[in-house]
Amino acid sequence: MALRNIPSIDEMLNDARVQELSRACTREVLTEMLRQVVDGIRQQLRESSEERSREELSNVIWAQLRHTMERQCQGSLVRVINCTGVVLHTNLGRAPLGREAARNVAEIAAGYVNLEIDLESGTRGSRYGHVEGLLRALTGAEAALVVNNNAAAVLLALNTLASGRQVVVSRGQLVEIGGAFRIPEVMRCSGAVMVEVGTTNKTYRSDYEQAIGPETALLLSVHPSNYRIVGFTSSVPLAELVEVG
After folding, report:
1. What does 73-133 look like in DSSP terms, one character per residue?
2. Helices then strands (H, E): number in the chain?
3. Residue % of the chain over a pLDDT of 90
4. DSSP 7
5. Which end of the chain lies in a sparser environment, N or C, as judged by fewer CB atoms within 10 Å?
6. What would the mean pLDDT of 134-153 be, rounded to a whole number?
7. 150-157 LR contacts (CB < 8 Å, sep 24+)
């Protein structure tokens, strides 16, 4: 049976060709990759009746191990062409950087920078200070904070402004967005108490007004992303929701 001819992990680790590859990574990482390759070959042999000699299998294991290592060293991100028709495509990296911005990033990333150092005082600064003023000027907001995605922004806002208190949201906006972020779960993690109003397809101004009480901290308006309800629908525009608040 061909399975008996599979070299052991230790035998392969002592192979001169494999030892040559060990210069690129630690023995632990190499051993784990080797186990994965051997497991894959073992499964292939179980599914076929092909007989392979020990020497053949040793050569196959080495070749696949080298390919696996080369692939991991190259990284998984590659340039692609966006033919989707969506300019700001989250799955394709959102907006590409302009050439000037890309050059600036490359120049800054190639050395040390004043990420959290105040150059005037010589003391520790804030990494957010580099963009907060710009964002406030652009948006008119009182303060600004950069996070990884909208779900993180919602979580921080809810935790800061409504932890332990009620947040009113339309049932038609209890959606799940990319990355499996669900509004009820984000709400629960923030410590806020969710109060649902309206129905899936219709929510009125009066629904929000009737739900407001002493424990109400926020009225939450959720962007539905690419989710749509069509037909007999009713929702409260953001400007009107602000008036209610």
Report:
1. HH-S-------SS-SSBGGGTBSPPPHHHHHHHHHHHTS---TTB-TTT-SB--TTHHHHH
2. 10, 5
3. 52
4. P
5. N
6. 90
7. 150/177, 150/223, 151/177, 151/179, 151/181, 151/186, 154/183, 154/186, 154/190, 155/186, 155/189, 155/190
| Alpha carbons 162 and 193: distance in angstroms, whole number | 8
Question: 160-194: per-residue pLDDT in tens?
Answer: 999 999 999 999 999 997 778 899 999 999 999 99
Q: What are phi and psi of 80, to 5 degrees?
A: -135, 165
pLDDT in tens, 61-115: 888 888 888 887 777 888 999 999 999 888 898 889 999 999 999 999 999 999 9
Instruction: For the beta carbon of residue 2, count every other beta carbon within 10 angstroms.
Output: 19
Nearest to 5 by CA among 44, 50, 54: 54
82-to-101, 102, 149, 187 alpha-carbon distances in Å = 20, 19, 21, 34
- Alpha carbon distances (Å) from 29 to 25, 26, 71, 93, 245: 6, 5, 14, 29, 56
The amino acid sitting at 139 is: T
Rounded CA-CA distance 202/233 in Å is 5
Tell me the three state secondary structure of residue 192.
Answer: coil
> Can you tell me whether residue 224 is helix, strand or coil?
coil
Radius of gyration of the chain (CA): 28
Task: Read off the DSSP letter of residue 234.
Answer: B
Residue 216, strand partner residues: 166
DSSP 171: G
Non-local (6+) Cβ contacts of 9 within 8 A are 31, 34, 35, 38
